[in-house]
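Hey,

The postdoc asked me to send both predictions to you directly instead of through the lab channel. I've kept everything plain text so nothing gets mangled by the mail client. Protein one:
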Amino acid sequence: MSLTSQAQTANSLHCFSPVSALGTRRNCINDLTKRLCGGLPRDRVWELTSMKLPGTSIAVLYAIVASASWGIAGVLSKFALGHGTAFLVVVLQLGCSVIVSWIYASIRCVSVDISQDVWSGVALGVLHPGLSNALGIVGLSHIDASISSTLWALEGPFTAVLAALMLSEHLRRLQALFFASSLVGVFLLSASSGSVAWSAANLYGVVMILVAVLCCAFYAVGCGEFRASGPQQAIFIVSAQQTVGLATCVGLWLCHWSFWDSSGFPEFSWDTLLVCFFTGPLKFLFATGLFMAALHRLSAGYAGGFLVLTPVFGLAAAYMMLGETLTFIQWVGVLIVLTSVAIAQTVAAKSPV
């Protein structure tokens, strides 16, 4: 390889920043592949890009553990909702996570360059973890944790559709078909369970979860518009986003009837408080950190496919911890949602960018 080719390759590798936007990461991979494999057949190029790099197995493990953490945290949140109001639970969760994240940021961040792009990234905290968690926890209080976990599997399809509409990213017809079929599964999940009769409250909970998922999708698309210049700036942005999210949740809580109703406070036990303090960092720091670490070794499409495991772990945890059960029709809905999203994610991972 000539010195010029080595320099071009080095420049391509330089774009593999741990905090790069997912779309940028995939563009860099494709650009590097064209430079190194320009004369090879298409099938051979795909084979080379699909080869596992050293450490890929650990990255896959990170993605699986992150999915499990999100699924289990959702079930534990449902347990906490049995002893307190929705906004009280989410404020305690986010508050604990904010404290831990700023402690970590104060240790790791020596100096951070704050630009207009940084503030734009921080402002996305209104969407996530602000509105997404506030609306998500309200929705969870009206439906079973198992159903909520499955609905969150729609985050991938929502993000792909929004990216196609707002960022002109390629969306294949086969992806759109399976995304549409996943909505059929959502409809079946809305059927009445054996323990709780279907009501308008259940429909309200499903709608709140879907709006929360949509907020996360807008957040993901917004993150694609900028990238941090280094790890320290990324840590600062994440901590600041959580702070903005906490302020958003508190503001919504002040406008909600539950803030003026003290019934949610006396029922809180130490066990419930510990659950809130544990699930906050578990969802917002541990799981997110592991998934970002997985993206260092895995492509965005491949890593995103593991998010389908989140409702699987959620369903198992809801059965073991809360004793929740689903009807046959609802299990059919779960199967349709997971299968549709998994296939659509696979198609997206193999699509050229």
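Protein two:
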Amino acid sequence: MESLNIDIESRDNNINENYSLWNNDDNWSEDGHEWSNFLGGTLNLWNDVIFPRIKKYLQGDILEIAPGHGRITKYLLDFSTSLEIVDLSENCIRACREKFGGKIKYNVTDGKSLQMIKSRSKDLVFSWDSFIHMHSSVIDTYLNDICKILKPSGYAILHHSYLQGGEEKSFDNIGGRSNMTPEHFKFLAEKNDLNIVDQENIVNGGHVIHSYGEGQEGTSVDTISICKL
């Protein structure tokens, strides 16, 4: 049986590192769209990579974790009955509020919990390009709260890293990615009473692969995990 040893100092260092980076407006030169350029823009990322994989779950009361400046938020808004976001960065929340006004609900989180979200209130919990930077212990605490806020028929769709043997400091690894595998994510999900519905490994923005290798320099491998109660 796999076990999880929580290093609180390492967890908190990871949260502080993410806060320092993403709360700095200088790191949002194109409002986050710079991280979609390899696909020709955020619209292509949504149409070709994200939407085909989540469309059957995209409805009702939605929570987005760590939206940054809202590059994906604008698309979620079109499909939701209500949309709520949480981010550890006050500046990211401010940027989203300036874009979306009263259309959505805003929360600043501590970078590891969702205690401000009402129990059993969400049909979908979604996050893209954020869990890839989170340490295992941070993901563990988020999954614990996701279990509490999902409706009985709800789903969580989380884009996370697929990296083994990287540096402890995520941003010393390719694309700032943390050490994580689909198998360990599944362990964390089940530890927190969530069931894995599907896991798909992706590389270079959406091309499906079926095994992990070191790959070429500049190539990142990630996983999309879909969970339910």
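Summary for protein two, as requested: The mean pLDDT is 90.

Thanks,
C.
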